[in-house]
UniProtKB/TrEMBL annotation:
<dbReference type="Pfam" id="PF01470">
    <property type="entry name" value="Peptidase_C15"/>
</dbReference>
<dbReference type="InterPro" id="IPR000816">
    <property type="entry name" value="Peptidase_C15"/>
</dbReference>
<protein>
    <recommendedName>
        <fullName>Pyrrolidone-carboxylate peptidase</fullName>
        <ecNumber>3.4.19.3</ecNumber>
    </recommendedName>
</protein>
<dbReference type="InterPro" id="IPR033694">
    <property type="entry name" value="PGPEP1_Cys_AS"/>
</dbReference>
<comment type="similarity">
    <text>Belongs to the peptidase C15 family.</text>
</comment>
<comment type="subunit">
    <text>Homotetramer.</text>
</comment>
<keyword id="KW-0963">Cytoplasm</keyword>
<comment type="function">
    <text>Removes 5-oxoproline from various penultimate amino acid residues except L-proline.</text>
</comment>
<keyword id="KW-0645">Protease</keyword>
<feature type="active site">
    <location>
        <position position="143"/>
    </location>
</feature>
<keyword id="KW-0378">Hydrolase</keyword>
<feature type="active site">
    <location>
        <position position="167"/>
    </location>
</feature>
<dbReference type="InterPro" id="IPR036440">
    <property type="entry name" value="Peptidase_C15-like_sf"/>
</dbReference>
<dbReference type="InterPro" id="IPR016125">
    <property type="entry name" value="Peptidase_C15-like"/>
</dbReference>
<feature type="active site">
    <location>
        <position position="80"/>
    </location>
</feature>
<dbReference type="GO" id="GO:0016920">
    <property type="term" value="F:pyroglutamyl-peptidase activity"/>
</dbReference>
<dbReference type="InterPro" id="IPR033693">
    <property type="entry name" value="PGPEP1_Glu_AS"/>
</dbReference>
Amino acid sequence: MKIVLVTAFEPFDGEAINPSWEAVKVLQGREIAGARVVTCQLACVFDLALQQLNAALAEHQPDCVLAVGQAGGRAEITVERIAININDARIPDNQGKQPIDTPVIPGGPDAYFSTLPIKSMVNTLREQGIPASVSHTAGTFVCNHVMYGLLHALAQYPDAASGGFVHIPYAPEQAARHPGEPSMPIAMVTQALVSMIAVAVTQQQDAIISGGTTH
């Protein structure tokens, strides 16, 4: 049976919860499209998050990896296309570190593209009435750090697992403390993750449909 590793983060920036972990943790041990899901919570800390991720990769040797993180202010589930080799933290991480203009992996490529069928995943969610889009920036905080580190790690193996990153909006209880910010129920996010995992493990070629933007 295939193994799908799904990661998410602990709360950060003063939030009481991180909706990524709330949506992901209920998938532990679940079977989706013939694959078994294992979950892992990552620290919202530069470098430590990659250490935890690499340990999970070594332990589970997954066939597919989906990393999930919170993007407060976004109104949709956004499937990331690209990760860049830079840390440029607007705020400190959970250990007070705030790297600026440093590489995620010294000497690594400038960027990595997701190896998931990102447009098919987005299209599936839209067909289910779940707001979703392709995103062309994962930011420069710990989410991009993890996405880049994940794709770099997977690229070291000839039969690499597929992998990528998904950002999700605030949960409603968070948005209530951030007037005017959009949100999405955690149950809907979990439903979306199940659908995206099913697409990721059953579809190797991405759909040839537009996912671009004009700005």
